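Repro case for the chain-ordering regression, as requested:
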Amino acid sequence: QSALTQPASVSGSPGQSITISCSGTSSDIGGSNLVSWYQQYPGKAPKVMISEVSNRPSGVSNRFSGSKSGNTASLTISGLQAEDEADYYCSSYRSDITYIFGTGTKVTVL
Amino acid sequence: QVQLVQSGAEVKMPGASVKVSCKASGYTFTGHYMHWVREAPGQGLEWMGWMHPNGDGTNYAQKFQGRVTMTRDTSISTAYIELTGLISDDTALYYCVGEPPGTGKFDYWGPGTLVTVSS
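-- result from build under test --
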């Protein structure tokens, strides 16, 4: 497995809620609570939005929330805003003491 | 204020090696894992490996084992990654990333160092 599986793109209108899925296996997402989500604007370094499945770092809007069920993690953005248009990546700790990123999802605000 | 300052862009021939540095300030360098993540043009993020806070342990993604070495010099709060046997697919932006132990949270990101492999 070279990457966790994310949808290539997700879109929504301002004010709507969207959910990005991140599918893995029992060796990563299913077996770990060290699942994080990152936001990346073009030409910029990623920024952590969610850590440990559902923890929101200080300074991150409460419109961002994370969850996990089985081998799939999810990031929900509620009250979608124009500034949320970016690429989003999930990551997970793995049982072989490595990490793996998702394939990335481009969020478009219509 | 946390800052990770990386070395400048590199252009290498296929088969060559490259060593990228990452100088940390504003946080306890020896209290955080240091990871390296790369991003090829138009591609996603790829985790390459980490170095334990005490500097005694490293673990690399299977894809890079045998070609990558991560080291650090605590006296100058600087981490290094060396990649050998470069191929064109290694052309990417290489980020150093700090993680508070046990969180899996890639908290501090450097600006990235562009490595271009071309003949």
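Ordering looks correct now. The interface with chain A takes residues 35, 37, 44-47, 49-50, 59-63, 95, 103-107, 109-112 of chain B (CB under 8 Å).
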